[in-house]
Specification:
The complex is a heterodimer of chains A (about 350) and B (about 325). Chain A is α/β, with parallel strands linked by helices. Helix content of chain A is about 40%, strand content about 10%. In chain A, helix 1 runs parallel beside helix 11. The radius of gyration of chain A is 20 Å and the shape is globular. Classes of the chains: A alpha/beta (about 350), B alpha/beta (about 325).
């Protein structure tokens, strides 16, 4: 199954308290409900363009979301709905953004792949693979320069480890000892191609950590408790001035790469194995075993559906963006004027 | 008043802004301990310290990414890309990220940074260290593009670039680094988007940028000896573009010549010419002439490079063609 965690010296503490764990469960459920709804709205023609769903990978974003503080910075990829919601961004503007409505998080100008909410510390989802690792460094550098204790968490996929920006960013983060955590969500596929067919080592992020003087860390990205623990440890490291970490979280996307991809290239046995390791039912069982009563769990589950229903209605009711938006905010004066 | 080289003016310009504003930092390859490969950042490390003047690895994407992330979170970084040709290896950051983020985020995120870069030919460096790439930058919505021609403008336009809330590509023309010019004492700030009329003449309007401004002035002098009086305008900033100054002059002279160091296709002069045709067609008394480098990469040999770049003789020829 998974590699050994290689973290015996840092992990292995007691699980977080039950309130935090319930919040983590709630966060994962909201993500799952949101992504399912986004998919349904695609099929209805209400979400346009493309979208990259994070079903199956919720534990990683949710755990970091719980471990981060307000004021910390998140950077994510085009598969970034989960990471956006994890920082407390409300569902309705995210759903509206996917639907190209005026009420969208960016007024309809960014779309699914560029979700950004500065007030929540969500400094953006980036759609050019690997670029945002270098940008996240800048936020981390700035925090350090300003003597802020904010940390930066930068999520990316296994595929990003093969682009030059990955190397440039990791090296600079290490040289400058930046307060940043690079979180590789290794879902085994870079778009349609198995990562094993496209990389010289077994673990795209962890096996390269040594090249930057960093620790080799591999975790079960579908185990929310384990993710929460590694999130807390790496964030604390960064906050206390010990520099960057890179974490490789093993996970699996339940669907294809994007809207256009049914994901049929994946062996059925592999898919079934990973569906059986779905982070959400796993976590539910663990919470039950820890003595959380069913009524509490069901209340959280129902609330997630109610929240998505409400967000969907709000998004559907939102008007189309005003045409004046086309020439707004190209420049800092609010407009698009390039000549006098 | 002091006489400074264009090269020295760069360091003075950076120092002026760093002394004024703690949020300004400088990063790039060899900018700190070495003082810059063109010696444009000499003394800044000593003056402002290693927290604010940072050497980076040879990692252009990491440089611009770091500058962008810092700009998003309260700083006003100055990033050096050693040769403008190297912008091609980090063009994603320039064109996709830095330029578009304000727009895509519906105004949530501003990117107040300056990318400085040594641009242009004349140094016999060959095709990958000599390009004039200002037209690349001009083609991307969201970027401002500046190219000073004098030590005074280096300081004044740089000040505005740093203080501007938008990303600015600041092209230092490397063939001008040794140029000397008078610079008054005290703070210098020149607005972006304001072209400068350097010489008045009734017969034609010659519009030039950076190193070409000096050749245009030489040509104007020689033409005057033949009785042809031209107006010479230093465009200074391509975005924002001061079309008012240019078109007012075209209306007066009825003739327009652009002098561009870039290769022919889609050079900035094509945009200027198209605006002139569209907006003052009936004031034009002859064809608009563009004097550019031919549509070729630059050769390393001095004789070949000199033939490719617009020369004073070719500018004179261009003006005469416009006057026919």
């Amino acid at each position: 199954m998974l590699e050994s965690r290689n973290l015996s010296e840092t992990l292995g503490g007691a699980p977080a308290d039950v309130e935090v764990r319930l919040a983590l469960y709630r966060s994962m459920l909201e993500m799952r409900a949101f992504e399912k709804r986004a998919n349904d709205l695609f099929l209805q023609g209400l979400v346009k363009g493309t979208s990259h769903l994070g079903n199956g990978q919720e534990a990683i974003a949710a755990a970091y979301g719980q471990a981060m503080r307000p004021g910390d910075y998140s950077f994510a990829t085009y598969r970034g709905h989960n990471h956006t919601l994890s920082r407390g961004v409300p569902m309705a503007p995210v759903m509206s953004e996917l639907m190209g409505r005026a009420g969208g998080l960016m007024g309809g100008k960014g779309g699914s792949m560029h979700l950004t909410s500065v007030e929540h510390g969500m400094l953006g989802c980036y759609a050019i693979v690997g670029a945002h690792l270098t940008i996240a460094n800048g936020a981390a550098f700035s925090a350090k320069y300003r003597h802020s204790d904010a940390v930066t968490v930068c999520f990316f996929g296994d595929g990003a480890t093969n682009i030059g920006a990955f190397h440039e960013a990791l090296n600079l983060a290490a040289v400058w000892k930046l307060p940043i955590i690079f979180v590789c969500e290794n879902n085994l596929y870079m778009e349609y191609t198995p990562i094993a067919a496209a990389i010289a080592v077994e673990h795209p992020a962890a096996d390269r950590a040594a090249a930057y003087g960093l620790q080799r860390i591999i975790v079960d990205g579908n185990d929310a408790d384990e993710m929460l623990e590694i999130a807390s440890v790496t964030i604390e490291r960064a906050r206390s001035g010990e520099g960057p970490s890179i974490v490789e979280a093993m996970t699996y996307r339940h669907g294809g790469h994007s809207r256009a991809d049914p994901g049929t290239y994946r062996p059925d046995a592999e898919l079934q194995e990973w569906l059986a390791r779905d982070p959400i039912p796993q976590y539910r069982a663990r919470l039950e075993a820890a003595g959380v009563d069913l009524a509490t769990l069901e209340a959280i589950e129902n609330a997630a559906v109610v929240a998505v229903d409400a967000a969907t209605e709000e998004a559907k009711a939102s008007p189309l963006p005003d045409p004046s938006l086309i020439e707004r905010d190209v420049f800092a004066d609010g407009g698009a004027k390039w000549r006098n | 008043m002091a006489e400074l080289t264009y090269r020295e003016a760069v360091a003075v310009a950076i120092a002026q802004e760093m002394a004024r504003d703690d949020s300004v930092v400088l990063l790039g390859e060899d900018v700190a301990a070495a003082g810059g490969v063109f010696k444009t950042t000499v003394g800044l490390l000593e003056k402002f310290g290693p927290e604010r003047v940072l050497d980076t690895p040879i990692s252009e994407q990491a440089i611009l990414g770091a500058a962008m992330g810092a700009a998003m979170t309260g700083l006003r970084p100055i990033a050096e890309i050693m040769f403008s040709d190297f912008l091609a290896v980090c063009w994603d950051l320039v064109a996709n990220q830095i330029a578009k983020t304000r727009y895509m985020t519906n105004g949530q995120v501003g990117i107040p940074l300056v990318i400085r870069s040594a641009n242009g030919g004349g140094a016999r460096f060959g095709a990958q260290h000599s390009q004039s790439v200002e037209s690349w930058a001009m083609a991307i919505p969201g970027l401002k593009v500046v190219a000073p021609s004098t030590p005074y403008d280096v300081i004044g336009l740089f000040a505005s670039a740093v203080r501007d809330d938008d990303p600015v590509l600041f092209f230092e023309q490397k063939s001008l680094y040794a140029l000397r010019g008078e610079v008054p004492n005290g703070e210098i700030v020149e607005p972006l988007g304001s072209a400068k009329v350097l010489r008045h003449g009734k017969d034609a309007t010659v519009v030039a940028l950076a190193a070409m401004v000096h050749r245009a002035l030489e040509a104007a002098e020689l033409l005057a000896a033949e009785g042809i009086e031209v107006t010479v305008i230093d465009v200074r900033s391509l975005v924002p573009l001061d079309t008012t100054t240019i078109l007012n002059s075209v209306v007066e002279t009825g003739r327009l010549v652009t002098v561009e160091e870039n290769p022919r296709l889609c050079g900035w002069g094509a945009e200027v010419a198209s605006i002139a045709v569209e907006e003052c067609f009936f004031d034009l008394d002859g064809p608009i002439v563009r004097v550019t480098t031919p549509h070729v990469p630059l050769a390393a040999a001095d004789s070949l490079e000199d033939l490719a770049l617009p020369s004073t003789a070719r500018i004179i020829e261009g003006v005469k063609k416009a006057l026919r």
